[in-house]
Amino acid sequence: MNRPVLLVLALEQENHQHRLNPLADAVLYTGVGKVNAALALTRHLAACTEMPLVVNVGSAGSHCFTAGEVVNVTAFVQRDMDCTAMGVPLGQTPFESVKRLENGLAVEGLPSAACYTGDSFVTEAHPVFHLEVIDMESYALAKVCTAFDAPFLCLKFITDGADGEAAEDWSQAVVMSAHRLEDALKAALAHVFP
């Protein structure tokens, strides 16, 4: 795969001192949440003459992985899509057949997981889903990549346990995330572009 690399993050804070910039041809900050993420990436890809490898990196919570781990996300679920009153399974958009997107590129050497995306900060266990990785943007980014037929790589640094301490843990850990993501992204890109 030989194509430009677009690095996508929600916030500039997740790219401490722009440490990750040398690993990409362009960097896009989307803002927080699914709507902002979808809008920003759609605008960017619509203007591309060559479809890039879209690489989403950033912070995430987890009920399974330990804070400080980097996880390769290969599947994506919209955890706050709830039309169960219509008989639609939790996490599935009505009138769409796909509940779980599985378009994340796999990278050897990193644990893989599904990410549960939603527009809320998680502070306790979910009544239905086993929340391996939790964020606010990656499902939207994965869906846009599917629409544009763009390859998608997603690496998340686990900053917190998505519990009552999550907000405090995130602000302290996000600085460290760029350092750990830099190493993981170098290895991942060497895997994608051998």
Summarize the structure.
The protein is α/β, with parallel strands linked by helices. It has helices at about 35-45, 140-150, 165-190; strands at about 5-10, 25-30, 55-60, 70-80, 100, 110-115, 135, 150-160.
Note down, in words, how this protein is organized:
It is a single chain. With about 190 residues, the chain is an alpha/beta fold. It has a single domain, classed as Rossmann fold, CATH 3.40.50.1580. About 25% of the residues lie in helices and about 25% in strands. The chain contains three helices and eight strands; from the N terminus they run ββαβββββαβα. The protein has helices at about 35-45, 140-150, 165-190; strands spanning about 5-10, 25-30, 55-60, 70-80, 100, 110-115, 135, 150-160. Strands 1, 2, 3, 4, 5, 6, 7 and 8 form an eight-stranded mixed sheet that branches. The protein is globular, with a radius of gyration of 16 Å. The termini are close together.
CATH class: Alpha Beta
The CATH superfamily bears the name Nucleoside phosphorylase domain
Please report the number of helical segments: 3
Quote the beta fraction: 15-25%
Oligomeric organization of the protein chains: single chain
Q: What is the string of SSEs from the N terminus onward? A: EEHEEEEEHEH
Q: State Rg.
A: 16 Å
Number of strands: 8
How far apart are the termini? Answer: 8 Å
Q: Which class of secondary structure composition applies to the elements?
A: alpha/beta
Number of domains: 1
Q: Would you give the CATH topology?
A: Rossmann fold
Q: What is the helix fraction of residues, given as a range?
A: 25-40%
* CATH architecture identity: 3-Layer(aba) Sandwich
Largest sheet: 8 strands, mixed
In terms of per-residue confidence, which ranges show pLDDT below 50 for 5 or more consecutive residues? none
Shape: globular
